[in-house]
């Protein structure tokens, strides 16, 4: 740690504490912007902004069915900078979801999740879950039509889990339907429990990054090191300033949405889940809930948690896409999965009506098993083709699987977000 | 395997936490307990005032009351069994459409088209002194419609 900077002033204890997030000297390759894109730091910054704006919002928000919506209106019309603070909170939450997703993508494709970084990958996934949970619990609080029906749709998905589904949904909602109990639950989680968990997990996450020796880099004999101050810290401050400036600027012009007050007797048409869950809702439209709400989410979660621990044979840690072949397979499988998902959904929507054709079969087969096969079989053939034709080994094939999952989810999300109108029917 | 003090205490804590979790899952967190256990039944009015082969929506009770040709009553919940949106009536099929995900139900509440997988839930009806009393607190799940679900005067 540097005790004296250029002016000869020694840093205060608080400065020293924060500087301990970094080592005193760092590999020059680690501070190149396109090594990390600063995404982890941006997430941490957004968390701080969210905490500060959230604390301010707490002064005016009333978590009851009678007053929640009115308190938002009061914030909007009768509070100086009230709407601005709310916009800032809303935008930062959106940015946080995008930034943490991109952070996951960056860490994965630069092969930085193996060996001692495996544990940190788990913490990262847990935090991604917390990011979604925070957004989701915050979504209900304005108590408008958007909030009410989005939460109704998602908590109803929980009911499809066998055996414990109903009790679990009841536990989340605190009731049989979304009501004042749900609001209280979500408020407590959103403003108390989840932020506390975040602070713990973030501390672990930072500490484990340091313990693993910082950003993962390809092995090299000669390593050039430079001082963290000013080389890295100045870059961090610059990126943070850009993010803050962008947030402030957008928050002036873009208002966080607020529809009519929640009305449990009238579903808006269409009722959509929060945008980041739209991929899941899209899946639910085409697949029997046993597949779309249970098997596929759990299998995907298992796959992602297992990623650092599968058996690999030629890991190149810190190398983007592991190898040139890995890069090729990632890009190609990502594009193909995106298009294939789109085409399959289009056909399921307009031409393939298995539920009508096979109406005397159990629906778990006609609307569950058959569509799943329609997806899995071509994907398996595609992977086999890469294995036989290009000698893609396990590392690359697993990378292709990850690309296919991520790309398919984004494809479904975009379809649901942009191409579905009234009655959740496709607009063309 | 020997059970020492530390293991014993750890397991005890795990057991206590599991029991607590089980209670949470079983839904023992009740925010409101009502002082009296009187079951508030929804009174829909005189049974004779309902025409046969007609559908009566009761928004406050959150159900549709259908009287079939033979005079049988069926009170169907208006919550779609797919994801809990409120279904609308469809005048063409005489059944119901869900605005959220395009599920369709026929006049008995049975699924006409997916993604919903089971018919609309129904509420038990009792008839006292010619008045229809509907128990809107206990929706009943069913896999298909049959005559036993109807209530007659």
Automatic annotation (TrEMBL), chain A:
GO terms for biological process: respiratory electron transport chain. One of its GO terms (molecular function) is electron transfer activity. Residues 1-218 form the Cytochrome b/b6 N-terminal region profile domain. The keyword Membrane applies. The chain crosses the membrane at residues 37-57, 121-141, 147-172, 184-208, 237-256, 290-309, 329-348, 360-385, 397-419. GO terms for cellular component: membrane. Keywords: Membrane, Transmembrane, Transmembrane helix. This is Cytochrome b/b6 N-terminal region profile domain-containing protein. It comes from Labilibaculum filiforme.
Automatic annotation (TrEMBL), chain B:
Residues 42-134 form the Rieske domain. Its cofactor is [2Fe-2S] cluster. It comes from Labilibaculum filiforme. It comes from the Bacteria. Gene3D superfamilies: Rieske [2Fe-2S] iron-sulphur domain. Signal peptide: none annotated. Keywords: 2Fe-2S, Disulfide bond, Iron, Iron-sulfur, Metal-binding. One of its GO terms (cellular component) is membrane. GO terms for molecular function: 2 iron, 2 sulfur cluster binding; metal ion binding. This is Rieske domain-containing protein. InterPro entries: Rieske_2Fe-2S (IPR017941), Rieske_2Fe-2S_sf (IPR036922), Rieske_Fe-S_prot (IPR014349), Rieske_Fe-S_prot_C (IPR005805). Transmembrane segments: none annotated. PANTHER family: CYTOCHROME B-C1 COMPLEX SUBUNIT RIESKE, MITOCHONDRIAL.
């Amino acid at each position: 740690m540097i005790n004296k900077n250029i002016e000869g002033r020694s840093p205060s204890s608080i400065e020293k504490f924060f500087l301990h997030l970094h080592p005193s000297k760092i590999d020059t390759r680690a501070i190149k912007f396109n090594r990390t894109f600063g995404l982890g730091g941006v997430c941490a910054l957004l968390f701080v902004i969210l905490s500060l704006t959230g604390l301010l919002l707490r002064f005016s928000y009333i978590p009851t069915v009678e007053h929640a919506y009115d308190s938002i209106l009061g914030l909007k019309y009768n509070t100086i900078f009230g709407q601005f603070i709310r916009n800032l909170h809303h935008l930062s939450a959106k940015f946080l979801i995008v930034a943490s997703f991109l952070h996951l993508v960056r860490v994965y494709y630069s092969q930085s999740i193996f060996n001692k970084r495996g544990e940190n990958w788990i913490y990262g996934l847990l935090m991604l879950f917390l990011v979604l949970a925070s957004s989701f619990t915050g979504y209900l609080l304005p108590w408008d039509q958007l909030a009410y029906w989005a939460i109704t749709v998602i908590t109803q998905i929980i009911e499809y889990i066998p055996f414990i589904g109903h009790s679990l949904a009841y536990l989340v909602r605190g009731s049989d339907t979304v009501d004042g109990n749900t609001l209280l639950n979500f408020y407590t989680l959103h403003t108390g429990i989840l932020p506390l968990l975040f602070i713990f997990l973030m501390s672990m996450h930072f500490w484990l990054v340091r313990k693993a020796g910082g950003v993962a880099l390809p092995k090299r004999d000669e390593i050039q090191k430079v001082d963290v101050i000013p080389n890295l810290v100045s870059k961090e401050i610059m990126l943070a300033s850009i993010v803050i400036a962008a947030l402030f600027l957008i928050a002036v012009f873009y208002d966080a949405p607020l529809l009519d007050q929640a009305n449990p007797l009238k579903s808006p048409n269409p009722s959509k889940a929060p945008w980041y869950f739209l991929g899941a809702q899209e899946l639910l439209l085409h697949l029997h809930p046993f597949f779309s709400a249970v098997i596929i989410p759990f299998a995907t979660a298992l796959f992602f948690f297992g990623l650092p621990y599968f058996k690999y044979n030629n890991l190149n840690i810190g190398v983007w896409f592991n190898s040139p072949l890995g890069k090729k397979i990632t890009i190609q499988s990502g594009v193909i999965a995106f298009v294939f998902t789109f085409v399959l959904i289009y056909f399921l929507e307009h031409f393939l009506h298995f539920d009508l054709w096979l109406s005397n079969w159990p629906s778990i087969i006609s609307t569950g098993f058959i569509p799943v096969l329609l997806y899995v079989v071509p994907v398996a053939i595609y992977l086999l083709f890469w294995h036989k034709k290009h000698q893609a080994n396990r590392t690359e094939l697993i990378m292709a699987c990850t690309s296919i999952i991520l790309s398919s989810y984004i494809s479904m999300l975009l379809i649901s977000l942009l191409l579905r109108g009234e009655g959740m029917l496709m607009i063309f | 395997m020997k059970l020492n003090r530390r293991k014993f205490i750890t397991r005890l804590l795990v057991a206590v936490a599991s029991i607590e979790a089980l209670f949470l899952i079983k839904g023992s967190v009740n925010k409101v307990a009502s002082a009296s256990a009187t079951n508030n039944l929804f009174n829909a009015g005189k049974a004779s005032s309902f025409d046969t082969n007609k559908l009566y929506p009761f928004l406050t009770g959150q159900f549709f009351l259908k009287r079939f040709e033979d005079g049988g009553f069926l009170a169907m919940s208006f919550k779609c069994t797919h994801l809990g949106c409120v279904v609308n009536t469809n005048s063409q099929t005489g059944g119901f459409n869900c605005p959220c995900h395009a599920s369709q139900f026929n006049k008995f509440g049975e699924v006409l088209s997916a993604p919903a997988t089971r018919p609309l839930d129904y509420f038990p009806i009792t008839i006292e002194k010619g008045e229809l009393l509907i128990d809107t607190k206990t929706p009943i799940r069913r896999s298909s419609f049959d005559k036993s679900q109807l209530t007659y005067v």
